[in-house]
Specification:
single chain, alpha/beta, Rossmann fold, six-stranded parallel β-sheet
């Protein structure tokens, strides 16, 4: 079958997408991945060694043209209608209050106001009713819109204020045995009223960028989806496979246009993701409510996420759990590249964080812990992201306060996906310090949970259900204290002996041998796709 995967990134570092595409390609399918063209992408078109094609869509120019067109053909007519209503009201008022008009005659009528009103002509009454009705309609519409948006922002602020309590209630419900009731497991619902169309939502949120709300990506999402939809339809696939929530609208329209199955691969719980912005997480819930019922195949990253979606969106097809496990590969001798890139002596022990530098991952706390690490240890931050500048500033300030001559934090660029294992194996410990403020992090099983152990690097993780289960089952690492602090990280590292680390390395091998892509999850993906094979196909 011809399979079109859609993902809203440049594909280069998305190990999950590349693993799934490679598995399907080796099984005899033809896989094309539609991604986005950006400064970090190799080229608009790329052919991988396994035969998978990557098409990167340059969507920005078309999106901005569409935004202008939307303003001209959708927003401007709205303003034209409003202007016309105001002009009509002004004209009616002018007729009523003109010198010698009905209002003036009523005020000067010797018989009083009632007598004056009785002397109004039918045309005077038409003007009066016309003005009152238009004013009432205008005020009612304005009140509904203002109330909706104030409710959206106000509820969002209250939710963020009570975030930790919400997360704990969800986590408790997830860990209960047996069936869960709606009372036990409240859904994350969109606070955006359904009667507000997507295009109006996008345009009205655009000005929030002026106040630092970072909504530009949100306002252009529908144009990006449309551009990718057009490319996907031209490819004429037999199946469309959407990675992440924001690709789901595009996948739905490709399915509708071509009459093909739609597979949805949910990498996270998007309504409860860490990067909460005004309107964004509500938009995720809105997408799920609108499109999840049209999904023919549903993939989740772990059992907790599958449980969430099953209860939050009753009626959705049963999710297939495919975790972020990586392929089992032989280890090669470490060549020193991680130490060389970080400018560290070969005998320095490295506490490694690899991945995105973004909010909610506990990275400021992690960087502050570096100055407290024992002698002979250093923290290496290998990655990229919007917090890069802030983290480097925190590291510099911490170094100044500690009075140390050497820099205990080193920042290096992310490694290519195919070389990641060779880099990671230079670390002594790998850390995942995600904060517990969002449900999505409570149930997280990121790529790092497999990437560290596959390189023989024991884990240091937050005591959240899914990660804790891995560490405790295979004895391949340690959990941090319930409250994430810089001193807590440093104290844990300082407490570990050479023997404990060596035993945890053995646990890493047990974990990866038992829970790798080939052993567990490759077959689940192929079985899912076998259900969509044309009748009579081998």
């Amino acid at each position: 079958m011809n399979i079109c995967m859609i993902v809203h990134n440049n594909v280069t570092r998305d190990g999950r997408v590349l693993r799934e595409a490679g598995t399907l390609q080796r099984a005899g399918h033809s896989v094309t991945i539609l991604g986005l063209l950006d400064a970090d992408a190799a080229s608009p078109v790329e052919y991988l060694d396994n035969g998978v094609r990557i098409f990167r869509v340059f969507w920005l120019a078309s999106a901005y043209r569409s935004l202008i067109a939307s303003a001209l053909f959708r927003v401007l007519p709205v303003f034209a209608v409003i202007a016309g209503v105001l002009a009509a009201i002004a004209y009616g008022l002018k007729q009523l209050f003109a010198p010698g008009g009905p209002v003036a005659r009523t005020a000067s009528d010797a018989g009083g106001m009632v007598a004056g009103l009785l002397h109004w002509s039918w045309l005077d009454w038409i003007y009066a009713v016309f003005v009152v009705v238009l004013l009432a309609a205008l005020l009612y519409t304005a009140w509904r819109v203002i109330k909706a948006y104030l409710g959206l922002f106000g509820t969002g602020a209250r939710m963020r204020a009570n975030e930790e309590d919400t997360v704990r209630r969800y986590a408790e419900a997830l860990m209960k045995e047996g069936a869960l009731s709606d009372a036990d497991f409240p859904s994350v619902k969109s606070r955006i009223p359904g009667w507000i169309p997507d295009w109006l939502l996008a345009v009205t949120l655009e000005p929030l960028e002026w106040f630092g709300a970072n909504t530009t990506k949100f306002t252009l999402l529908r144009y990006r989806s449309r551009e990718m939809t057009q490319v996907a339809v031209k490819l004429k696939p037999d199946i469309v496979h959407c990675h992440d929530c924001l690709t789901l609208p595009a996948g739905y329209y490709v399915k509708k246009k071509l009459g093909i199955p739609l597979v949805y691969d949910a990498h996270e719980i998007y309504e409860a993701a860490a990067a909460r912005m005004v309107g964004i997480t509500d938009y995720y819930a809105r997408i799920h409510k609108k499109y999840l019922r049209h999904v023919d195949g549903f993939i989740c990253v772990n059992d907790s996420a599958a449980l969430y979606y099953s209860h939050a969106y009753p009626g959705v097809v049963k999710p297939v759990v495919i975790r972020n496990a990586i392929q089992l590969s032989p280890a090669e001798p470490y060549d020193g590249r991680l130490h060389d890139a970080a400018g560290l002596p070969e005998d320095t022990r490295i506490l490694l964080y690899q991945g995105g530098f973004s909010e909610g991952r506990g990275l400021p706390i992690l960087v502050r812990s570096a100055s407290m690490l024992p002698e002979g240890w250093a923290l290496v931050m290998m990655g990229w992201g919007p917090l890069s500048g802030q983290l480097k500033q925190i590291a510099a300030q911490a170094a100044m306060r500690s009075g140390r001559d050497e820099d205990k934090v080193r920042f290096i660029p992310p490694a290519p996906q195919k070389e990641l294992k060779s880099w990671t194996q230079g670390a002594t410990l790998g850390i995942i310090p995600y904060e517990g403020k969002m449900l999505n992090h409570w149930i997280a099983t990121p790529n790092k949970l497999w990437e560290y152990p596959s390189s023989g690097v024991p884990l240091v993780v937050q005591p959240f259900p899914e990660m804790r289960r891995v560490v405790m089952t295979y004895h391949c690492g340690w959990t941090l204290p319930e409250t994430l602090t810089a001193s807590g990280i440093a104290d844990l590292v300082a407490s570990l002996s050479d023997e404990q680390i060596a035993q945890a390395r053995l646990g890493c091998m047990r974990f990866i041998e038992a829970d790798n892509w080939t052993a567990r999850y490759e077959k689940r993906l192929l079985d899912l796709y076998a259900g969509f094979a044309p009748k009579g196909a081998a």
